[in-house]
């Protein structure tokens, strides 16, 4: 047992205060994480201890179902536990394989006055976090069962700073919990208690109920959850409330807890699911090439993009909105193309160049002309994927429609990228790996505005906890992009930072927003993008600090990439290269901001240099204000 003495004293006190059968100890496999579920004075509560430190003091745990509050006047019984350990292969993961190792516990919670009113709380404890959910059986369900409220109130042991996602705006934070109130904070929420103590809160396996938000409306150290449930008359389980723990901010985004809380892959043969890099026509409209050609929404422009993709190790072309008519016009039919676009010809040309086509689909067109009919037509044309945009309806409607879209896309062997959320990623890509990414961030130049460098840093450490994001990075024409039809504001940042974002951001589709000609003008820099694989083999945070900087290493076969980003401040970073395999030599091609680079004043200057390194080396890199750094490590080991 690794707990400190005072942890044992805490447990002893709990045992004395409650009857034995109403106090339960739950432990992670390594026993560093302990949850204590108690029923003191018939009130259900839980506490959390991690690595010997009490993080959560006794806190109410439960739901209000109809008029019954399951946090008071209840008893606990039917305690059970089991261990589970497996390793599974990912299709679209941060790592090729994932270990799913946990201890699972279930506890029946029933009212003292009416034992027919009950539910089961299921806990799963991992070495890097835990989750719980509620299960209600038909025996306990009525014809119109309604969960009114989540009564859980998490009383953290001390004050903390937190950050959270914020739609298509810069993320919330840093916020001192005891000093400011917020009612509807959208997860993931990242909490920092000390320099070496972080927690992230999110949901996993969001299948039928609307996602929760975090409530921080009292001036203390607590969080509660806002939920919006509909009525049920059959057995059901809620989404998992998930908590990831770590010593560093980067530990949270490296965690596989969310995917492990989802069911295994339901696609019998998912070999057709292939992540990759994609060009994108939407932001290129209006770009004037050196040969006088102006890009527009037509097949000729698409063929130029396909040619560049084919020649530069880019697997896909995303044809975005308006290709079948005005996207919000209910008469725009997504089973036929508008004037100027020959979709069959485009598909045939792309096939001849071994480039896949992704087609945009708006919720309006899907519902008016039949979702399955439209997806079948896309598949018959030869499309490999769908970008689904602007889903309408209630939050619960969006949850169910999202799953329906994903399942039907799987039926027709189509990958899918959701635009404008519509609900947070929740590890569901394990069950349906064709769900390759979601916007779930402020994609650069989206919402008709640009974001600043600190947003790029925090998206890696906050939004990506939920899953892969589509941030549409890789701008090269930073000085003039805002003169185009679909770019509305000047884009802050340096061109090297744009390359670094392609490494720091984990996404099933790496959507490149610029024109072929803009990339050709800086071909020595674009060489780094050309070397990037369709899918990386790993994701490791080398160093990070919220609001400040982040460095991420990604593996590609025998080679490696490292991307680093800073906020508006220039900084120097020393990279420890011990993540490289011992005994191997690498040629490091370093793409860096030039002297005088600046995210507003000098965005497109850069330089490229090379060094020979190995696992014992250190690299000192400099990042300009709002800038970045990208490194390609090529294995040059001479075989003996």
TrEMBL record:
Q: Which domain of life is it from?
A: Bacteria
- Known PROSITE patterns for this protein? PROKAR_LIPOPROTEIN
Carries keyword Acetylation? no
Q: Where is the Glycosyl-hydrolase 97 catalytic domain?
A: 290-439
Cofactor(s) essential for the protein: Ca(2+)
Where does this protein have coiled-coil stretches?
none
Name the InterPro entries on file. Answer: Aldolase_TIM, GH, GH-type_carb-bd, GH97_C, GH97_catalytic, GH97_N, Glycosyl_hydrolase_97
The residues forming the signal peptide are 1-21
The residues covered by the Glycosyl-hydrolase 97 C-terminal oligomerisation domain are 536-634
Pfam families given in the database record: GH97_C (PF14509), GH97_N (PF14508), Glyco_hydro_97 (PF10566)
Tell me the Gene3D superfamilies matching this sequence.
Answer: 2.70.98.10, Aldolase class I (3.20.20.70)
Give GO terms: molecular function aspect only: carbohydrate binding; hydrolase activity
Which residues belong to any copy of the Glycosyl-hydrolase 97 N-terminal domain? 27-264
* Assigned keywords, A-Z: Calcium, Hydrolase, Signal
- Assembly and binders: Monomer.
Record PANTHER family: GLUCAN 1,4-ALPHA-GLUCOSIDASE SUSB-RELATED
Protein name as annotated: Glycoside hydrolase family 97 catalytic domain-containing protein
Q: Which organism is it from?
A: Fulvivirga sediminis
């Amino acid at each position: 047992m690794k707990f400190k003495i005072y942890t044992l004293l805490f447990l002893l006190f709990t045992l004395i205060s409650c009857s034995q059968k109403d106090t339960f100890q739950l432990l992670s496999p390594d026993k560093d994480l302990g949850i204590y579920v108690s029923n003191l004075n018939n009130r259900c509560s839980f506490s959390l201890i991690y690595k010997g430190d009490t993080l959560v003091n006794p806190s109410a745990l439960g739901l209000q179902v109809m008029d019954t509050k399951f946090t008071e006047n209840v008893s606990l019984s039917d305690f059970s536990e089991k261990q589970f350990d497996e390793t599974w292969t990912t299709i679209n993961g941060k790592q090729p394989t994932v270990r799913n190792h946990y201890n699972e516990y279930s506890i029946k919670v029933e009212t003292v006055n009416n034992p027919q009113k009950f539910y089961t709380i299921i806990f799963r404890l991992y070495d890097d976090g835990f989750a719980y959910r509620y299960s209600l059986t038909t025996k306990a369900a009525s014809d119109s069962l309604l969960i009114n409220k989540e009564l859980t109130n998490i009383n953290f042991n001390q004050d903390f700073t937190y950050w959270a996602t914020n739609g298509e705006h810069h993320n919330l934070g840093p916020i001192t919990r005891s000093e400011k109130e917020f009612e509807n904070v959208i997860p993931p929420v990242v909490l920092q208690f000390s320099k070496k103590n972080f927690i992230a809160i999110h949901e996993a396996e969001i299948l039928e109920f609307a996602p929760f938000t975090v409530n921080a409306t009292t001036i203390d150290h607590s969080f509660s959850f806002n939920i919006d449930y509909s009525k049920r008359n059959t057995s059901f389980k809620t989404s998992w409330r998930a908590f990831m723990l770590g010593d560093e901010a980067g530990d949270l985004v490296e965690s596989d807890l969310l995917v492990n809380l989802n069911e295994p892959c339901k696609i019998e043969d998912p070999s057709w699911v292939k992540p990759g890099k994609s060009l994108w026509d939407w932001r290129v409209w209006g770009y004037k090439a050196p040969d006088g050609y102006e890009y527009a929404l037509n097949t000729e422009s698409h063929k130029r993009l396909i040619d560049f993709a084919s020649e530069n190790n880019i697997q896909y072309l995303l044809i975005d909105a308006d290709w079948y008519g005005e996207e919000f016009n209910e008469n725009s039919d997504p089973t036929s193309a508008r004037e100027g676009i020959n979709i069959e010809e485009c598909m045939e040309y792309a096939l001849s160049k071994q480039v896949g086509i992704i087609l945009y689909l708006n919720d309006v067109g899907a519902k008016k002309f039949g979702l399955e009919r439209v997806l079948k037509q896309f598949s018959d044309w030869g499309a490999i994927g769908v970008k689904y945009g602007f889903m309408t309806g209630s939050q619960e409607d969006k949850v169910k429609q999202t799953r329906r879209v994903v399942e039907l896309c799987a039926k027709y062997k189509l990958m899918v990228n959701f635009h404008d959320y519509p609900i947070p990623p929740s590890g569901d890509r394990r069950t349906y790996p064709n769900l390759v990414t979601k916007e779930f961030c402020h994609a650069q130049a989206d919402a008709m505005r640009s974001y600043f460098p600190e947003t790029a840093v925090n998206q890696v450490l906050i939004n990506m906890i939920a899953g892969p994001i589509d941030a549409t990075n890789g701008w090269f024409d930073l000085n003039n992009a805002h003169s185009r039809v679909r770019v509305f504001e000047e884009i802050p940042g340096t061109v090297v930072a744009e390359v670094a974002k392609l490494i720091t951001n984990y996404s099933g589709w790496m959507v490149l927003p610029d024109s072929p000609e803009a990339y050709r003008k800086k071909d020595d820099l674009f060489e780094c993008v050309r070397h990037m694989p369709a899918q990386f083999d790993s994701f490791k945070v080398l160093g990070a600090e919220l609001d400040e900087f982040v460095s991420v290493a990604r593996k590609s076969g025998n080679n490696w990439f490292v991307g680093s980003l800073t906020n508006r401040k220039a900084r120097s970073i020393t990279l420890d290269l011990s993540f490289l395999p011992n005994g191997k030599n690498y040629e490091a091609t370093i793409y860096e901001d030039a002297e005088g680079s600046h995210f507003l004043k000098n965005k497109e200057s850069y330089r490229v240099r090379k060094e020979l390194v190995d696992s014992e080396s250190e690299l000192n890199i400099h990042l300009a204000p709002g800038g970045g750094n990208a490194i390609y490590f090529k294995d040059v080991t001479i075989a003996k």
